[in-house]
Specification:
Shape of chain A: flat
Shape of chain B: globular
Helix content of chain B: over 70%
Largest sheet of chain A: none
Strand content of chain B: under 5%
Number of domains of chain B: 2
Number of helices of chain B: 12
Radius of gyration of chain A: 21 Å
Structural class of chain B: mainly alpha
Radius of gyration of chain B: 19 Å
Helix content of chain A: over 70%
Largest sheet of chain B: none
Order of helices and strands of chain A: HHHH
Oligomer: heterodimer
Number of strands of chain B: 0
């Protein structure tokens, strides 16, 4: 341990406070009793789809497209997730299949 | 009496919520155990790592916070960094204003523990018939939270005993977001917004790099969505 227990607890609380502000802010700005403005309702309706796009890119942010393996394990596994999902439409199967393939690729093929 | 009559519904809600959270369990097991091991190797045992997971709950920020725990004490930096790293949560609250209306005390915990994975499930899935929305979303939130805290404790306690090669297991979370993207895609009216999210994040990644991707991407998404509102809302 580098910090004292008191300092460590303080850091944990500081991290928690910052994180909680980001989670609560929209609920503070637009309380339940009042109807939010139309622009906010519009954002609430369309953001989930946009956020899924953002999260997919976020997960791939550290893939190096120019160096060895060129993102192939990621792209192949995502393709398999998509194909499985179109074929069976079973969330768990799509995710398990893609993850198993990815583990195989990064552990045994692209090493 | 009321408690008794609520019991079977809670069980049905848990039964419906659990399968939806299995991918999160897989990903969190990999990342949470790794986090517990990493904390341990930096001199912070299972008690500390589990405390951080339980109170500071937020995967990527907790990894960032390890760097703050091994240098000079600076709580203000920790606070500001947590806001920046987690800024994307503001989008989640905005999207859930309506869904999380009138949930009473359950909402306190559901907002406290609103992470990427829980938001993705809650915003995309509807409860099966006979299960109240509130209960379904509450159980998803609680299960995801317990997976993360439990995996952290496991990593801190037993991490060194794991001999199975888990490299790549965290891809379960990438796959989860891909599947939920496709679920959103099923509704044709969502498609332009999914593409906007991908494109804005892609541009932001290319311009600002992996470490500073999120905030510019959020600004860009907001600008495109609000700027194009008239054209997108037909």
């Amino acid at each position: 341990m580098h910090l004292t227990p008191f300092q460590t607890v303080t850091i944990i609380l500081a991290v928690a406070a910052g994180t909680q502000i980001t989670r609560w802010l929209p609920f503070w700005l637009f309380p339940e009793k009042k109807d939010p403005p139309p622009a906010v309702l519009y954002l609430g309706r369309v953001l989930p789809a946009a956020v899924m796009g953002l999260l997919v890119v976020y997960c791939l942010k550290n893939v190096s497209w120019t160096a060895a393996s060129h993102g192939l394990p990621e792209l192949l596994s995502i393709a398999v997730v998509g194909l499985l999902h179109r074929w069976k439409g079973n969330v768990l199967l799509s995710i398990a299949g893609g993850t198993a393939l990815y583990m195989l690729l990064v552990q045994a093929v692209f090493v | 009496m009321e408690r008794l009559s609520e019991q079977p519904n809670q069980r049905a809600a848990l039964k419906a919520a659990f399968p939806a959270t299995v991918p999160v369990m897989t990903g969190f097991l990999a990342l949470g155990v790794a986090y517990g091991i990493l904390m341990e190797s930096n001199g912070y045992g299972p008690l500390w790592s589990t405390l951080m997971s339980a109170i500071g709950f937020g995967g990527s920020m907790q990894y960032v916070a390890i760097t703050l725990l091994v240098k000079a004490f600076d709580p203000l930096q920790a606070f500001l960094l947590a806001i920046m790293v987690n800024a994307r949560h503001m989008f989640y609250g905005l999207s859930l204003l309506d869904k999380y209306k009138g949930l009473g005390k359950a909402r306190l915990f559901m907002v406290f523990a609103l992470c990427d994975e829980t938001f993705s499930l809650v915003s995309t899935l509807e409860p099966p018939e006979g299960v109240a929305r509130k209960d379904f979303y509450f159980w998803i939130t609680l299960l995801d939270y317990l997976y993360w805290v439990g995996a952290t404790a496991l990593g801190g306690l037993l991490g060194r005993l794991i001999t199975f090669d888990t490299t790549g297991l965290d891809f379960a979370l990438t796959a989860l977001f891909v599947v939920l993207f496709l679920e959103q895609w099923k509704k044709p009216e969502n498609r332009p917004f999914g593409l906007i999210g991908l494109a804005c994040a892609g541009v932001s990644l290319a311009v600002f790099g992996a470490e500073d991707l999120v905030i510019p991407a959020m600004a860009l998404i907001l600008a495109v969505l609000l700027g194009g509102r008239k054209r997108l809302c037909t």
